[in-house]
Amino acid sequence: MVRMTKEQYNSINKKKGKYKNKKNEVDGYSFDSIAESNRFLELKILQAGGVIRSLSLQPRFKLQINNSLVCTYVGDFSYIKTENNETVVEDVKAVRTRTFIIKKKLMHAIYGIEVTEINVLKRKKRDDNAKIEKDHIRRQSSAARRNQSGCNK
C-alpha cells in the first residue's frame, strides 16, 4: 500500500471545473478563471485612475420577496462609477446558465441593479478578430514593400 499526503492526493485527483476554467490567484485573491482575474486587474487600474471607487470582490445580495429569502446572488465584482455614483455589479461569464438569468432578473427587480455580464467568449472572439486583422494588415504591408522594391529595380 502506498501512502501519500493530502496535498499529494489532491494534486493527483484535481477535478476540472464544470466549464474547464482554470483557477487563478492574483494579489492574494483566488479567482475561478483567468478571465475573472484579468478583469480584476483592469478594474484595479480603473480604480487607481479614479474612474471607479469602492471596488469589492464577491459581493453578496440577498434576494428576498415579501420578507422571504428566495436565494442569494454572489457577483464577481461591484464598484461605484465616480462620474455618476452608479453602483455596478459585474459577472464574468463563459456560459449563461438558467440560474444566472433568473438571479440577474431578480437583482434588477429587487435592487434596480442591472448586472453587467462580461462575456468571456465574445471577448475571446473579439481578441481573435483583432489578431486576424493585424495579421492581414501585416501581410498587406509586406506585399506592398515587395511590390515597391520590385518596381525600383
Report what the structure shows.
- With 153 residues, this protein is of the alpha+beta class.
- It is 45% helix and 27% strand.
- It is built from four helices and eight strands.
- It has helices at 6-12, 34-48, 98-111, 120-152; strands at residues 24-26, 29-31, 52-57, 60-65, 68-74, 77-81, 87-93, 116-119.
- It has a four-stranded mixed beta sheet with strand order 3-6-7-8. Strands 1-2 form a two-stranded antiparallel sheet. The chain has a two-stranded antiparallel sheet with strand order 4-5.
- A hairpin with a 2-residue loop joins strand 4 and strand 5 (68-74).
- The radius of gyration is 23 Å and the shape is extended.
- It starts with 5 loop residues before the first helix and ends with a helix.
- 14% of the residues are buried.
- The mean pLDDT is 82.
Quickly describe the structure.
The protein is an alpha+beta fold. It has helices at 6-12, 34-48, 98-111, 120-152, and strands at residues 24-26, 29-31, 52-57, 60-65, 68-74, 77-81, 87-93, 116-119.
